[in-house]
Amino acid sequence: MSKLNKDILFVLFEEIQDDPKSLFSCLIVNRLWCETAIPILWKNPWRYNINYRSKNFLFNIITLSFSDDIKDFLSRQGIKLSPVSHSYRPFLFDYLSFCRSMNVNVINEIISIGSCLAYNQFLLQQEVYNLFMRKFSELKYLDMRSIEHQIFYFPRAMACLDSLCELTCDTSIDSSYFYGLARICNKIEKLIIFNASPKVNRGIIKLIEVQRKLKYFEWEDDCDEFEEYFDIVDIYEETFLALAKKADTLIHFITNFQEEYEFTFPSRILSEFHNLKTLKLNFHPIFDYSYDEQLKNSDYPNLESFQLDDITLISTVACIIKNSGGLLRRILVNNYDVVEDNFNEESLILINAVYEHCPLIEYLSLAFPSSDDHFVEFEKLLTRCQKLRILAISISNVSEKSHEQMTVDREKLLRALIRSSSTNLREIRFFEHFRFTSETLEDFLENLRGRPALSIFTCDLGYIKEDLAEYAEIINRYKKDGVIKDFKFVDKEHMHF
């Protein structure tokens, strides 16, 4: 391994860049490994799970890179910089030259090491951004939440920001900041917006309008309650109508609306996003049934993943599947409306739609009644969808049946899983109160021997109650034998994908 050439090492290190522990360990193997790993670590040094405020090394590297006159100026302001002794030697690497990202929140946290005074921190921020604009050959990723400086005015900012491809921001930032970026940045591919203000931010709208190849858009409502409501409709209407004009390039559309305000979203634009690969919506359709109609009438031939937190009509999910191009790998619905009048019939149609149109499906959530017809269709799905890896499932009519009937239904479900699921299945999530008898559970696990280890998640507390120790004994035994990887209780709120 130590004799691999630099190109191979670089490819290997790129693969583990999300694992800082492993990547940091590569630094101490030899000089070649160190020289290869450093640029990858420093491409985005703010991303790692580090308590920046308690660790001074990033602060030291940044402030030691200041020119002597800047150091003198900041010191006169009472700002504590890195102590430089007579034995100080230049760094082995020009670390900041490798950096391609800025995270304002993290940088502010680091800067707080130098001073607790707001004015001093402002001065430090100014010099840090000025330094970054000079040191970075290009800036690819920017998280500008909490920003206090219009960085596009710094020397070399135009050359540095021209390559920006990923931006995270929030709507409380003054529009002028976005106007400045819009003048320079038109190559943004990924835009994540945290909505923290009840007013329209026309700077964000302008920034969206000038983009030429926007591919990923994410909107996250990030406030408990807006004190002012007068612009709420305009926030959604104007912003998303501007986004709709980017439909030709947009392939990932993700939203997380607060329930109180989602009714202002212009649902008519959903049919325009014809190139989507990812669609994630968290509508609560009690406010507006037009979402269902828009989704039913939309064609997404390239769709690979869709997630709906709530859906009024199960037929909506079936329509999305039928109108897709057979590329779906994820179908995640966190809350099916099982009290819908024709739910029994429509759930059969949904199961059929999955196995007829989704040969590549890997992640799937389903809810259906425990009729014989449903179990027959469910087994067809398991048989045909051989790539299925994660299955979340709920039997919807448990409240209508006796304890004995529910026990029989659950046994039917497990037998179907044993008979028909492929060895690719790695995880099952049982929604609702899904407690099997200890005998049924043990029989199910015994029949899993020889398959890859399975993870099981349940919302039923019964499996972890002290007075039901027989479950713990069974679960621990099959864990030890490698039949199951995990068996956990998860409350329903956190069971969602």
From TrEMBL:
Gene3D superfamilies: Ribonuclease Inhibitor
Lineage: Eukaryota, Fungi, Fungi incertae sedis, Mucoromycota, Glomeromycotina
Record organism: Rhizophagus irregularis (strain DAOM 197198w)
SUPFAM superfamilies assigned: RNI-like
Entries under InterPro entries matching the protein: LRR_dom_sf
Name recorded for this polypeptide: F-box domain-containing protein
Domain of life of the organism encoding this protein: Eukaryota
